[in-house]
Amino acid sequence: MSTLFNRYDNKVIALLLFTIAETLCCTYVLRSPVDAELVAIIYFVSGLAIGILPLLPKQTFAITPAEAEAKQKINRWLIPGAFILLGGFFVLHAVSIINAMPIDVVAADMLPQIEVMCQRLIDGEKIYAPIMEIWNGKQPPYMPLMWLPFTFAQWAGIDIRFTTIVFFLLGLYCTYRLLPKNLQETQYWFW
Looking at the chain, which terminus has fewer C-beta neighbours within 10 angstroms, N or C? Predict the structure, then answer.
């Protein structure tokens, strides 16, 4: 294990762990029986650490050939695996949320307005006419690039929220493609 990680990698691992802790503190842990004050303290400390860790000076270390070979193995399997797991995790959770929560104007009016605007485009109607079903005739406030990407899903009869999932996965793929093929220590901060 000592050949895989040096002290600089430990900073990166700590940054990832603090990020995970902060994310968990503002999502799942809040629903657990853990004391809310403790969660708030962990959230605060994690946020401070995330802000401070990248500012700490970088220490350079000589890399042995064994460390270089181990990093090549990590780059070859771990990074694509992490992106695939992240994408799968996101899709599974997003689909379960979409299935559990139908689009409702009482919960939020953005998606129903986007649905109406997309359907009007498909039907050839005036897009920016007041929507009588929403708040007794609300004028749609969204500019075309905010609702146009959802038009295909509306036309295909798919829940328009899947458009967001597709764009997130495309962004994740683009991020993966932009990563250098041979990550070095200095490039870990890109993550």
Answer: N
Distance of CA 70 to the CA centre of its chain: 29
* Size of the chain in residues: 191
Predicted confidence (pLDDT) per residue in 121-142, tens digit = 999 999 999 988 887 888 888 8
- Given a contact cutoff of 8 angstroms between Cβ atoms, the answer to whether 8 and 185 are in contact is yes
Q: Note the pLDDT tens digit of each residue in 55-66.
A: 877 666 566 777
State pLDDT tens for residues 161-176.
999 888 988 887 887 7
Rounded to a whole number of angstroms, the distance between the first and last alpha carbons of the chain is 22
d(CA 162, CA 95): 8
Residue 12 contacts residue 191 (beta carbons within 8 Å): yes
pTM to 2 decimals? Answer: 0.54
For 131, other C-beta atoms within 10 Å of its C-beta total 20
Joined together, the tokens standing for residue 45 give 């400390």
In sequence order, what are the residues at sequence separation of 6 or more whose Cβ sits closer than 8 angstroms to the Cβ of residue 190? 179
Q: Is 103 helix (H, G, I), strand (E, B) or coil?
A: coil
